[in-house]
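W.,

You were right to be curious about this one. When I first looked at the sequence I had no strong expectations either way, so I just let the prediction run and decided to look at it fresh. Below is the sequence, 163 residues in total, followed by the output.
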Amino acid sequence: MKRIVLVRHAKAVPYGYEDDFSRDLTERGRNDALKVSALLKSRQVKPDLMISSPANRALQTATIFAGNLAYPVDEIQTEPGLYMEFTTGDFLDYLQSIDNNRSTLFVFGHNPGISYFVSRLTDGFYGDMPTCSTVCIEFPVTLWKEIDSRSGKLAFQLVPKMI
């Protein structure tokens, strides 16, 4: 089985749109990331690989998750395409290139892309993806290249307000 945990970055400062890439998390955002990642830890959902948009708010969210999930921060990979460039087709192609020794992939990005990815990979997800929303999708395959559109099963969605 392959599993993808898609995380929309946590709440960011509401200013600095002239340099959107450099926006930081708010205190609430940091707290939400701590809460959600702690719940994942309690459920023993651990990453084999973490990939993040290089934008500050996504990378800061990934760093908090890494700290809570005992994942080495210096091993978080950045992918520029996750900063609002990937189409869902590009994202699917990217997933299909992941090393098959990795079973659980965490991906940190932005809306609307993260919502589109979840909708494209599952059959029937029409939910909202507020900041720090975390969705786990499971695929009954052994190779990443076997993942296809609408072939994933929604395992769970965590939203900070639920916790």
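Here's what jumped out at me. The beta strands are 2-8, 49-52, 77-78, 104-109, 134-139, 153-158. And, maybe more interesting for your project: The mean pLDDT is 95.

Coffee later to discuss?

I.
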